[in-house]
Amino acid sequence: MWLNGTAAHFSGVRSEYTVDSLLRILLSWLLLPREGFLLHAATVVRDGSAYVFPGRSGAGKSTLASLSPAGTVLTDEISLLRREENTWRAYGTPFWGEFRAAGSNCSAPVQGIFPLVKADENHLRALAPRGALCAILPCVLFFSSDAEANKRLLDLLAGTVAQVPCYELHFRRDTSFWDVLPGTLSPHGQREEAGTQEGRST
Amino acid sequence: MKETPQDCWQKNPLLAWREIEGETVIISPDESVLHELNDTGSFVWRHIDGQHTAAQIASLLAAEYDVAPETALQDTEALVADLGQRKLLVRARSTNGGGDER
Fold first, then answer.
1. Is ipTM beyond 0.85?
2. Contact assignment for A154 to B17 by CB distance below 8 Å
3. What are the extents of the domains in chain A?
4. What CATH topology corresponds to A15-190?
5. pLDDT digits (tens, 9 = 90+) for B3-34
6. pTM
7. Does A153 sit within 8 Å of B16, measured CB to CB?
């Protein structure tokens, strides 16, 4: 590997997954002091805002991305979240899931974080900060066993869930889930446009 | 029976933990395991400092939550044993040189 300005070049790589793994580890380390982290999550941009959908393998990230309009998916596999000037932004990443295409190299302010649950009907369940933290923690990519780094990560994530609205999204496998995603959210269960904590669409 | 420093436990310094809304979230980095403690568990966790014994913490718990002292002691000892088994707690270092740290 050699660096050329802001680009890194690799040679002699037998499998793209080798570079993939290296980049994941490298990025997770570089992001922490820059108030950022990687999250197993699909991110879709709607009306200029990023909707982040965390979930482990099989949770439905790629399904949800495939149900979103073309050109709106930042990533269907790994999202990069970073706090910039006290605002959380989501970025696309080079890591792909079933889309088999690189994520978009752009970003948008985070509207909300919606851990995924497959269901027969669509609805949102508001998550208080602790519940939100426990929901997203298993989806965070971090490879260090260093105690101080993990404490720093935990503090950063606690700040994320305190600042960003988090809702569990129970969703049906069609495009109707968008009906329960509100346009404006405030943290911890207050939907500003609807005035209720839970939306349903059947 | 007089308690010795070996009866005290301390939080494993390798852990990352945080209290949110009165409940505690603990990450064990080595195993990438997430642990959660409820409010009474968090009360015990808060007082595990290498100085308080389980019996002393149980007394504080009984006073705070208005439970019978024997129940508080039983629950505290069970929780401390469980946390110790999960390596979330380690034996407090002896101040007289007679103890060990596991």
1. no
2. yes
3. 15-190
4. Rossmann fold (3.40.50)
5. 454 579 999 999 999 999 899 999 987 777 88
6. 0.81
7. yes
